[in-house]
Amino acid sequence: MKRRLRKRSKPEQNDGSNVLIIDATALSYGVFYGIGTTLSYNGKPTAVIYGFLKKVLQLCRMFKTNEIVFCWDAGYSWREVNYPQYKQARRQKKEEALPEEKEIFDQLLFQQIQLHSSVLKSMGLKNTFCFPKYEGDDLIGKIVKEYFNGRHKIVVSSDSDFYQLLDKSDIFLLNKKKLFTHEDFTKKYGIHPDQFALAKAIGGCSGDGVIGVQGVADPKSPTSKALKYIRGEITSGKIYNRIKAEENKCIQVNLPLVTIPYMSEEMPEIKIRKNRVTRRKLIKVFDKYRFISFLEDEMFTRWQEAFCNEK
Hints:
The chain has helices at about 25-35, 45-60, 80, 90-95, 100-125, 135-145, 180-190, 195-205, 225-230, 240-245, 250-260, 280-290, 290-295, 295-305; strands at about 20-25, 40, 45, 70, 130, 150-155, 170-175, 180, 205, 210. The model is unreliable at about 10-15 (pLDDT under 50). Helix 1 crosses helix 2 (about 45-60) and helix 8 crosses helix 11 (about 250-260). The protein is globular and about 65 Å long. The chain is of the alpha/beta class. The chain contains 14 helices and 10 strands. Strand 7 (about 170-175) and strand 8 (about 180) form a beta hairpin. The chain folds into 2 domains: about 10-185 and about 265-305, 5'-nuclease (Rossmann fold, 3-Layer(aba) Sandwich); about 195-260, 5' to 3' exonuclease, C-terminal subdomain (DNA polymerase, domain 1), CATH 1.10.150.20. The strands form 3 sheets. It has a 6-stranded mixed β-sheet. A two-stranded antiparallel ribbon has the order 2-3. The chain starts with 17 loop residues before the first strand and ends with a helix.
């Protein structure tokens, strides 16, 4: 299983421009847990919408780009169809939530739908995608692997599952507020990024309910037995024998579940379009939701500088 690590070549950055590919569901959850649902207008919650847009502006200014793609989860996914245990604990937790908790999450869902279906497109940010039975992770994986060739792609998320994409992108970790690269990954874990899905298939994924080989945990740490096995550091003994015994059993079942994108079903075509953000569109959206602070001179100038190509 051991492979020689190699440095990634750098053709992706040859034109010096960045493309942000945002795990929009994760970003909206982060905003939700950060600011809650205190802001509203006309009886409808708007705090997540406001916080989401503010974060998007910060990211675009940080990476000096207005080339941005938003990818959203679509609820029940193909993984859950084909593997009922997948995210079963999360579904059960939602089902057992108290009425007031369900109401709060309904407010979050309402704002996520508003952002995807209306707000971003009304601003002129055209590339916001959500496909039935696909997770945002799958859309991100497809875009990273097949789109924006020759560009420097940055996935924005806190999900370590995206480590397997580090051959073709960097990751801006929302929870740590830092860029994580191919070189960072190989230095920390001692394997190649395209081997990370195999590590997850061996060790399982506790958050998603994917059960790995007995005695081998989710590879969250460099000392994970799954990572040690791939690095060639485990060559005999009980764990080694279990992994070898499961190579054609649970590991093969798990591998499609933890690989991005999910390839068991054919994904609809993703059509990337040019953003058409204008001063008028920004004013219309900010006024509709009464985001007064976005319309103040200094902040509105930032929005225009970041997104508007008008003269």
